[in-house]
């Protein structure tokens, strides 16, 4: 319920968290401002420009470690470093997180439906719609990743064509591109299965295993729970599969090989 209320306010451009921090922080901000100006009277190397209040950082942590992207990006990048594939291809994952991590130690080829305007010698970009299987890319790579991306396919959020079967088309494309025995690193939101249009789909683990069946074999499964804690190499027991590890909006991380 709290998440729904927060998303409602964010839709209208209002961030309740920042609002509360600003109200609470205004007295100490003004106190600090005038105190600093007084201390700066004998130091004239900098003139005072416009005010730019930032209230939340004084009491916040030094990073949001309870974020899906932080854990999954670092975790999967480490797995790729360990496995040392000949070629690694990514489909739609976060460029300023996972892709950047991998590019720090090796070349990575990125496919995305959106344009990318950055230059890095280890990042090769190709604009493509992975809802449309490309036979010319058959057996193209021995390693592929798609992290927190497939759940968006076909919802139109990123300018992609509307397609209720977009996630299934995406899996088929990945299967075609990956060589036999190649590794597939995949993550998505997990919990009671639903579409939260047009943000994303949330998949049940049982459904994901069903669409992977016959195509991929799961080597390792990890997940991030609703509290933001990472659980590595979790056991996919029948009960855990049925309940999606009790997650409402968690993140499942699969490492698989192509059959």
Give a short overview.
With 259 residues, the protein is α/β, with parallel strands linked by helices. It has helices spanning 2-11, 16-39, 68-83, 95-103, 166-177, 205-212, 238-243; strands spanning 89-91, 108-112, 123-127, 141-147, 178-190, 194-196, 200-202, 216-224, 230-231, 250-258.
Overall description:
With 259 residues, this protein is of the alpha/beta class. It folds into two domains: 2-58, no CATH class; 68-258, Rossmann fold. The chain has helices spanning 2-11, 16-39, 68-83, 95-103, 166-177, 205-212, 238-243, and strands spanning 89-91, 108-112, 123-127, 141-147, 178-190, 194-196, 200-202, 216-224, 230-231, 250-258. The strands form two sheets. Strands 3-2-1-4-5-10-8-9 form an eight-stranded mixed beta sheet. Strands 6-7 form a two-stranded antiparallel ribbon. Helix 3 (68-83) packs parallel to helix 4 (95-103). It is globular and about 70 Å long. The model has no long low-confidence stretch (mean pLDDT 91).
Describe the largest sheet.
8 strands, mixed
Number of strands: 10
SSE pattern, N- to C-terminal? HHHEHEEEHEEEHEEHE
Strand order, largest beta sheet = 3-2-1-4-5-10-8-9
CATH topology of the largest domain: Rossmann fold
* Alpha-carbon distance between the two ends: 41 Å
Estimate what percentage of residues fall within beta strands: 15-25%
Question: Structural class, from secondary structure content?
Answer: alpha/beta
